[in-house]
Amino acid sequence: MKAIAIIPGTKQVNLVERPEPKISAPDEIKLRVLRVGICGTDREEVAGGRADAPPGQKELVIGHEMFGQVVEVGSAVRSARAGDFGCFTVRRGCGHCSFCLADRSDLCSSGDYTERGIRRRDGYETEFVLDQEKYFVPVPPELVPLGVLAEPMSVSQKAIDEALRVQEARLGIGDSGSGNAWARGKVALVAGLGPIGLLGAIALALRGAKVLGLDVVDKESLRPKLLGQFGGTYVDGRETQPSALANYFEQIDLIFEATGVARVEFNLLAALGLNGVYVLTGIPGGDRPLQLDGAALMRQLVLRNQAMIGSVNAARKHFEAGIADLAQAQKKWGDAVNQLITHVVPYASFADVLEQHPENEIKAVIEWDKPH
Ligand SMILES: [Zn+2]
Ligand SMILES: [Zn+2]
Fold first, then answer.
1. Phi-psi bin for 192: left (phi > 0), alpha (psi -120 to 50), beta?
2. Rounded Cα–Cα distance for residues 119 and 114 (Å)
3. Number of C-alpha atoms within 13 angstroms, CB side, residue 60?
4. Residue 233 contacts by C-beta under 8 Å, 6 or more apart in sequence?
5. Per the domain annotation, does 247 fall within a domain?
6. How many other C-beta atoms lie within 10 A of the C-beta of residue 222?
7. In a shared domain, residues 157 and 296
8. Fewer beta carbons under 10 A from the terminal one: N or C of the chain?
9. For residue 111, how far is its CA from the centre of ligand 2 (angstroms)?
10. Of 237, 230, 248, 214, which is closest to residue 325 (Cα–Cα)?
């Protein structure tokens, strides 16, 4: 079978031949890969950045945002059968820290975790993949067009879940433990309207928050238009400084950051209101120093009772919550949600999306097969 492989640390990307995986344990599921989403991590990998081949191997098969269809299951598998749709999660636990032992490898404290398509495990840019049932998350057939968004949506879900739980716990509003009660009616600012930001906007809007979306693109372009369809209000960051946001809108209760630009990440703090929570998902590159008024920043956090949280990766429950939200979003906003997937290319044309980044892109995906 075909696969897209890199040699980590170089700019070599090739279509390679790999043996098709075979079920060899009762808890395994084999999927035919349908689509694999591309994100900044993949582009970093093909540009020679952060990536590790499996032990003893020179090449790494890339791809971590997968969606597929079950072709075969082991004798002990109960949650899937041939023909079903679903995806595999990305991270695999270290097997010895308390978080991984509790199935929360997204919080792994030893650093010995692996990740499919990124860190010491082959990924999903290939025709067939195999893994254990515990890493399989089912996707209902009506969600087939959106299934490839399950992984980026899981990242948005975890960040929002953490922020809402913190608010519920410390402010004593709602007692479901989910934080959803706190979100209703609150003002949430989403910064950066890429896939993570727009999926975050969807999740927040579905929880009853009033969503503002900040980016630096023309308001007539696709991202602000989709934000509007999800009930959000666009703010052009080229015209409105973060510190001025508080004058335009009522108190901002939550900031969901998905820009990955350190300067923006810090400047946004000025927009956060009393008792607010700020959750960051962007991972800034580069090493340019940033000049900050440290005392003012710390003073603000203390005097306004604010919480700041960093969030990366996701647990299985965040995939499940994300798939449930995508289903609800599809019912509520229909085709607007499908428009998040802007580019679909056949696997042989991988260079078109891995080595360039079209300006109007939201989510680009590589297509390996159609549903059977
Ligand atoms: Zn990704
Ligand atoms: Zn661990």
1. left
2. 5
3. 28
4. 210, 211, 212, 213, 227
5. yes
6. 17
7. yes
8. C
9. 6
10. 230
The answer to whether 167 and 305 have CB atoms below 8 angstroms apart is: no
Q: How many domains does the chain have?
A: 2
Q: Which residues surround ligand 1, an ion (CB under 5 A)?
A: 39, 41, 65
For residue 8, which amino acid is it? P
Domain final position from 268, 293, 310? 310
Q: Which of 278, 276, 233, 269 is nearest to 251 (CA)?
A: 276
CA-closest candidate to residue 233, choices 189, 185, 281, 279:
189
227-278 pLDDT per residue, tens? 999 999 999 999 988 878 877 777 999 999 999 988 889 889 999 999 999 9
Q: Which residues surround ligand 2, an ion (CB under 5 A)?
A: 94, 97, 100, 108, 110
- For Cα atoms 3, 8, 38, give the angle at the middle one, nearest 5 degrees: 55
Q: What is the whole-number distance in angstroms between the Cα of residue 125 and the centre of ligand 1? A: 13
Asked if residue 115 and residue 179 are part of one domain, the reply reads no
Q: Do both 179 and 124 map to the same domain?
A: no
34-46 confidence digits (pLDDT tens): 999 999 999 999 9
Whether residue 228 contacts residue 198, with contact meaning beta carbons closer than 8 Å, is answered with no
The enclosing domain of 193 has a CATH number of: 3.40.50.720
Ligand in nearest proximity to the CA of 364: 1
Q: Is the pTM of the predicted complex or chain greater than 0.90?
A: yes
Are 140 and 327 within 8 A, CB to CB? yes
Give exposure, 7-25, as e/b (b: 16+ Cβ within 10 Å): bbeeeebeeeeeeebebee
In one-letter notation, the amino acid at residue 171 is L
